[in-house]
Each structure stands twice: as C-alpha cells, then as structure tokens.
Specification:
Helix content is 62%, strand content 0%. It is mainly alpha-helical and 69 residues long.
C-alpha cells in the first residue's frame, strides 16, 4: 500500500473507520442479547440495514420488480 500517497490525498489508511462502520451496521442489529440468526436471515437484515443506512432506500423501493415477488 502506498501510505504516503494516500496520506497526501487526505485518505484514511487505518482500519478504524471501517471497523466503526461494521460495528454500526452489524453490531447494533445482529449482536443483541438473546438473538440467534440463520445465515439467510442475518444476510437479509444486513442487506436492508446497508441500504437504509446509505440512504438510497427510496430509489430501491421505487425500482423493485413487483412481478418477481
């Protein structure tokens, strides 16, 4: 990794930002006391949280294919 180049561009080079994002998306919903998830259930919740937290949910909702449901 070209740390000096990335630093000069003002980019993050540490993992802290990514780890905090994971904690927000995953930890706050999937790791509560007493929760058990199937792999498919956890993936569905993570997909929804990712869309909701990145704010394109309205576009996704409007573009959904109702025939596939």
């Amino acid at each position: 990794m070209s740390y000096a180049t990335f630093r000069s561009q003002g980019l993050f080079i540490g993992s802290g930002v990514v780890e905090a994002g994971c904690k927000t998306v995953v930890g706050k919903r999937l790791k509560n006391s007493g929760m058990f998830w199937s792999l498919m259930g956890a993936q569905n919740i993570l997909d929804l949280r990712t869309v909701l937290l990145s704010n394109p949910f309205d576009d996704l909702w409007l573009s959904r294919d109702l025939k596939a449901a």
